[in-house]
Each structure stands twice: as structure tokens, then as C-alpha cells.
Amino acid sequence: DAGVIQSPRHEVTEMGQEVTLRCKPISGHDYLFWYRQTMMRGLELLIYFNNNVPIDDSGMPEDRFSAKMPNASFSTLKIQPSEPRDSAVYFCASSFSGKGTQYFGPGTRLLVL
Amino acid sequence: EDQVTQSPEALRLQEGESSSLNCSYTVSGLRGLFWYRQDPGKGPEFLFTLYSAGEEKEKERLKATLTKKESFLHITAPKPEDSATYLCAVFTYNTDKLIFGTGTRLQVFP
Predict the structure, then answer these.
(1) Residue A103 and residue B49: Cβ atoms within 8 Å?
(2) Residue A21, beta-bridge partner list
(3) Is the separation of the CB atoms in A78 and A65 below 8 Å?
(4) A65-75 pLDDT, tens per residue?
């Protein structure tokens, strides 16, 4: 199994630009989670989906952030417009049927200049 | 409110010097407690799940234990390759998400 796949691995953009992060969960997993990790705040849950439906988006920092899951094998996290304080590593994780164990992707390192 | 606290924040060990990392939690109903390892530039990697007080799990030089209030990750005779950040997380009956601690950054020197 390829594990959770994220792209791009690195993204450098300028303030005000739109950023789209992509995630492919492990096949058969029905939960998908988006996290952000910084030195200051650690690992923060942004949003999670169950069977492609958003369940809890209380961690999404503001309206500039949006996430979609059009099908069971693909999700996007979009930031528009991006700001320097969005610079972080963004992780996607997936799990099976509420078992709890989440498997993480390699992350996308975002730098907003 | 469910909370997870890890200590110490950072730990420096000499190779072969055994020690323990602590994860204390206050939750309304524990479904499971998870330990993850995170190497620099990588995503967290799953290590163990513990479900009930008294349970223990082992993997190489690592042993995880669980009580009703805390979990310990014991590292026996560590090697430099054990250097990483170790994260614990709780899984409760209130939600399907994990609540993570802030991690312990372990450095093992030869």
C-alpha cells in the first residue's frame, strides 16, 4: 500500500496568492483529517471528513481556508488569499471506520512570503 | 474539556541511558491512547495503541504502559536512531478525532 499521498511536498508562494494542497487517503479508509503543524502551536486539527462529508471544521482558522472531498480518494485544502502566518507544515491523515488509528502523509511544507 | 499533557518537553540521553516519557490525560471517556513517533521533515508514524489500564505494548526498545490517568513510554538502552519527537494522543467516546499532546523531543547522543 502506498500510504497517504500528499502533493506538493513543498510550496513557496507570495502573500495574496491562492494555495491548493492535495491529499489521497489510503484506499478503503473512510475518515480523512487535515492538520497544521508549527513550532509555536504544535499539531492542530483543521477539519475532518467521514465518507466524504465534513464533520468538524471548528479548527479552520478563518474563511480564507476551505476544504473539499469530492470522492473517497481525493481531498483538497485551499487557502485564498494566503498570508505569511499560514506558513506551516500541513498534514493529511486517514483512518478506517472510527478505529482511531490515523496514518499520516509526508506533509506539505508551505512558505508564504 | 479533554486534555493531554506530555512531559518533559525535551529530553537528552546518552546512548544506553534508559528513561521514560510521560503522557497525562483528562478525558470523559477513553477509547484508546496512541503513541506516535515523528522524525524531522516527516509525518507522525504510528507506534502503539493502548485501550485499558494495565495494558502494555512493546516494540524493540520501546514499551508503552497505561493507567487511568497517564501513559508512559519507556525507552530501554536507547540508540541515536531513537532520536525523534514522540507524540501521544487520546481517542474518546465524544468524537472521532484524536487529541494530541505537544510532544517530547528526544535526543540520544553516542
Answers:
(1) no
(2) A77
(3) yes
(4) 999 999 999 99
